[in-house]
Write a structure and sequence with these properties.
Layout (H helix, E strand, L loop, with lengths): L13 H8 L7 H13 L3 H21 L4 E5 L9 H8 L4 E6 L2 H10 L6 E5 L5 H5 L2 H6 L7 E5 L7 H13 L6 E7 L7 H10 L12 H6 L5 E2 L5 E2 L16 E7 L5
Parallel strand pairs: 1-2, 1-4, 2-3, 4-5
Antiparallel strand pairs: 5-8, 6-8, 7-8
């Protein structure tokens, strides 16, 4: 019989906390309790989650408009209503989607949802070890390395420490065919840490990730490398792709999309 140390329902998961913030039903009491504490520390956390999900929808639509038909969604959580395969395959039934998440419960839920969808699957892997993702049989089977890929790193890099996040993203980016896109949303921190940030960091240390922290805009831009940012560049998540000078409306998340240049 599983105990509190081995039963995943007793340990909050970043994927399931996000699901709880979105009002989903793929979460446990521990995740809902963690979401409650997160909302107490950052009252706008639910709004941030919804704005981030709306950005994901717009970004996938943008890539579809530009002919992208395959997607690698890392840190995907649980693909329920409004996730990548649903958005992409509604417009392009031939679109292929691979979800990657570190949480075995999220992956199991995902593959149960996707069991009748031969063009989408979820694999369990850790962002910090990109070769395990790139060489995974499911990834190699579904994604054609000769065709553009949409690499989605949406609201997940702020869970990865610098020493892992930057080299892992660089390796993933280097594996993308020319014409591919990198889609990133990320918590931004241009001010000194305060009590709320400390609370959030401590909360996420009890989950499947080691920390949660924002980065400056310059640090976030490093994740794009030589990918050319499409207008309007790096903006508040709710402003992409329209840009403008609007207020963040309680969010602390920025987003951008970059295109991998053609081979020289």
């Amino acid at each position: 019989m599983a105990n509190a140390d081995t039963d995943p329902s007793h340990r909050p998961s970043s994927a399931r906390i996000y699901d709880a913030l979105l009002g989903g039903n793929h979460n446990f009491a521990a995740d809902r309790e963690a979401a409650k504490h997160l909302l107490a520390a950052i009252p706008g956390a639910g709004e941030m989650a919804r704005a981030n999900r709306a950005f994901l929808n717009r970004a996938v639509q943008f890539l579809l408009d530009r002919g992208v038909r395959q997607f690698l969604d890392i840190g995907s959580g649980i693909p329920t209503v409004g996730n990548v395969h649903e958005i992409a395959q509604r417009r392009a039934p031939e679109a292929r989607v691979v979800y990657v998440d570190i949480d075995p419960v999220a992956v199991a839920h995902s593959n149960d949802i996707l069991k009748d969808n031969p063009l989408a699957l979820a694999v369990q892997a850790d962002m910090r070890f990109p070769e395990a993702i790139l060489e995974h049989p499911g990834v190699r089977e579904l994604l054609d390395p000769a065709e553009p890929i949409g690499l989605l790193l949406v609201a997940m890099l702020h869970f990865v420490p610098d020493d892992d996040a930057f080299p892992a993203t660089e390796r993933l980016r280097a594996a993308l065919p020319p014409g591919s896109y990198v889609v990133i949303s990320h918590g931004v921190s241009d001010t000194p840490a305060d009590a709320a940030i400390d609370t959030v960091t401590a909360l996420y240390r009890r989950t499947d990730v080691s920390a949660a922290h924002g980065r400056t805009r310059d640090q976030i831009l490093r994740f794009f490398g030589d990918a050319a940012l499409v207008p309007p560049g790096l903006v508040w998540v709710h402003e992409w792709p329209d840009g403008g000078d609007g207020e963040p409306h309680g969010t602390a998340v920025v987003a951008a999309v970059g295109q991998i240049p053609a081979a020289s």
